[in-house]
Design goal:
A two-stranded parallel sheet has the order 1-2. It is 54% helix and 4% strand. It has 2 domains: 12-69, no CATH class; 85-156, no CATH class. The chain is mostly helical. The two termini are 46 Å apart.
Length: 168
């Protein structure tokens, strides 16, 4: 709808007032059916405040469906919980990728090992951004086909001590 400056403190009362004023300005206060918000506790308190300002009778189902939780935020929480379960394995793969991409000489050695174990290099290894699960997924997807290369590399290079296990 628009970007609005919300003065501090960012309480439910302040946020609901600024949001209500914007809805009124756009003549949407009595036409709104849902608001999509993330799951922070302040937002849980904003909805009842907004319902009071608009009036229950002016909202669909008295505003019972007004607060729609952000699906992308929920998906993000689910994926983060799933990644937490395998965080040690991810750490080893991350360390392995960092090790083998640290210098041109290591990259070359990794490529030689791949040829030796007959694994075709389709994509270059790349580190993830730890706070973005989609980049972790990409790093894992790229590293997965090189499982045999990591395994052989742990035998060939004695300095490489962070190879993921067969299970990892």
């Amino acid at each position: 709808m628009r970007f609005i400056y919300v003065p501090a403190p960012h309480t439910a009362e302040v946020i609901s007032e600024v949001l209500y004023e914007a809805l009124v300005e756009w003549n949407l206060d009595e036409k709104i059916s849902t608001l999509t918000l993330d799951n922070c506790s302040t937002n849980d308190k904003v909805i009842p405040e907004l319902v009071k300002k608009i009036g229950k009778s002016k909202l669909m189902l008295d505003g019972k469906l007004l607060h729609m939780r952000c699906a992308a935020y929920i998906l993000n929480l689910i994926v983060r919980d799933g990644l937490e379960v395998i965080k040690d394995s991810i750490a080893k793969i991350r360390e392995s990728v960092a090790y083998w991409t640290a210098t041109p000489k290591r990259i070359e050695k990794f490529e030689e090992i791949a040829k030796h174990v007959k694994v075709k290099l389709k994509h270059k290894l790349g580190l993830d951004c730890k706070t973005r699960w989609n980049s972790t997924f990409k790093m894992l997807s790229i590293a997965m086909p090189y499982k045999a290369v990591f395994s052989r590399a742990s035998i060939v290079d004695k300095l490489y001590d962070c190879a993921p296990s067969e299970e990892e």
